[in-house]
Amino acid sequence: MNTTNQQSKIALVTGGSRGIGKSIALNAAKRGIGVLLTYNSNPEQGKAVADEINKNGGKAVALQFDSSKVGTFDDFVGQVGQVLKKEWNRDTFDYLVNNAGIAQRTLIKDTTEDIFDQLVNVNFKGVFFLTQKLIPLMADGGEIINISSGLARFAFPGVAVYGSLKAALEGLTRYFAKEYASRKIRVNTVAPGAIDTEFGGGKGDEAHRQQIASMTALGRLGEAEDVGLLVASLLSDDSRFVNAQRIEVGGGIMI
Ligand SMILES: NC(=O)c1ccc[n+]([C@@H]2O[C@H](COP(=O)([O-])OP(=O)(O)OC[C@H]3O[C@@H](n4cnc5c(N)ncnc54)[C@H](OP(=O)(O)O)[C@@H]3O)[C@@H](O)[C@H]2O)c1
Q: Name one GO molecular function term (predicted).
């Protein structure tokens, strides 16, 4: 299963149970990286991804994690520490991929405080505090990848809060890179374009999908695998001097 010599490394991928996170988890495992993946509401899907990796000669564990509940993060970090010890006989891990996220299509005029808070909690506040609390468990020289969105850069009606939070996450990437540089932890952003997953209710009817494809230089929607392959390739010393950067994986959307 291993395609590179990453055998002793471990990655934690949030939202690794389906969509883009699943592809990141599977492709990291193919490179010999041990995977700790999380699901939120669907344990079966989380465990299925871990089983697939374990069956194919890799090593993975699935844990429940809800990015909107900061009060549970200390317990989660404790669980991560226990799993690292039990399964890998390590106290640290190497790569954190902050992938879990949600969207809700709502025009600004219809955006309630509840919707706003939910989007902030999962997509920004949760990422901030999870990273803050997990960094003590990360090995020096490790790497963090924050999954943003093309919508951080270009505006469409209905995603004002979501897109703005992804822009904020890109800013946060640079701040984490600055404050943890002394530990040689690199922090980068990967920004998917329009990717064909169930995210935010999916990509809609055929006409809408064709419209997105026509705005994309490569002429199609992205697949989870497009992002998974790129992110997994970054989890390596091959990108050892890439820091505080944003890489868009969108096939040339809106150029
Ligand atoms: N798809 C796109 O077009 C696109 C484009 C740009 C950026 N992105 C970004 O890419 C990332 C992954 O998107 P995706 O398309 O793979 O989404 P997805 O198919 O909807 O999968 C979302 C994943 O996140 C988990 N999750 C949902 N709510 C959570 C919460 N409150 N706490 C922790 N985990 C939670 C889900 O777990 P459960 O199923 O167990 O709840 C699932 O594993 C997101 O950050 C998204 O913003 C996506």
A: oxidoreductase activity
Ligand 1: residues with CB < 6 A are 14-15, 17-21, 39-42, 45, 65-68, 99-102, 122, 147, 149, 192, 194-195, 197-199
What's the token pair of residue 3?
Answer: 């395609």
Report yes or no: 25 and 53 within 8 Å, Cβ to Cβ.
yes
Contact yes or no for 158/103 (Cβ under 8 A): no
| Shortest-distance atom of ligand 1 to CA 43 | 40
Distance 178 CA to ligand 1 centre (A): 27
82 in Cβ contact with 56 (< 8 Å): no
Q: How many Å lie between the centroid of ligand 1 and the Cα of residue 126? A: 13
Q: What is the Å distance from ligand 1's center to 39 Cα?
A: 10
- Other CB atoms within 10 Å distance of the CB of residue 90: 16
Strands, E, within the chain: which ranges?
10-13, 34-39, 60-64, 93-98, 138-147, 186-192, 246-249
Residue 3 neighbours by CB distance under 10 Å: 10
| Domain ranges (residues) in the chain | 10-249
Q: Distance between CA atoms of 224 and 190, rounded to whole angstroms?
A: 13
Q: Is the pLDDT of residue 5 over 70?
A: no
pLDDT per residue as tens digits for the range 209-244? 999 999 999 999 999 999 999 999 999 999 999 999
The answer to whether 224 touches 23, Cβ cutoff 8 Å, is yes
Catalytic residues: 162
59 token code pair: 């090593």
Candidates 3.90.226.10, 3.40.50.720, 3.40.50.2020, 3.40.1620.10; CATH matching 10-249: 3.40.50.720
